Amino acid sequence: MAGLGIAEAPGTRLAQDRAEVRYPADSVVVLAGIPGAGKSTLLRRLFPEGADHQGVRVFDSERLRARWMPVLAAVPYPWWRPLLHLTYYVKVLSAMREGPMILHDCATRPWVRRLIGWRARRSGLAVHLILLDVPGDVARSGQHARGRVVRSGSMATHCRRWPRLIARAVDDPGHLVPGAVSATILTRGQANRLEQIAFE
Q1: pTM attached to this predicted model
Q2: Which position has the higher pLDDT, 105 or 2?
């Protein structure tokens, strides 16, 4: 399968399977999807922790959570989840000074999208979106598989917002994350068959 060239046109939807997506080196790639869509699974497969990623920096809140678990496992996760998220976003925004980097985010929180767009613009970096478009029931199955289920009310909010976000991204990625220049939308099957996210 041929690789997809560097994304230039906004609102790009993958019409067929691709082995690879490519971006310029001065890029911030936001890998987005509702909880359970498979973001962390895709990052673990393409960017294993501890491996040499040739300068690509990977930010995933699940990895930060795994590092905290040995110390905080006895404390109910909802108690320290806000601190985890705050620490994660501080780390992401502080590191957003040069590319390439790829970061995990659900993209359903407007204030986070605005912060990412603002910080990337301040650093002269282009934002590209990869959106995992997964139905809510499939995402819930993914949550059960990972052993951590999002509260029903919170999940309903994610699922309610997601279709509108996809529509906005197709119309213009900049409506989703200010300054974003491309959006690539993947089904679960396409994400499973993706072999590389490359920067050049």
Answers
A1: 0.86
A2: 105
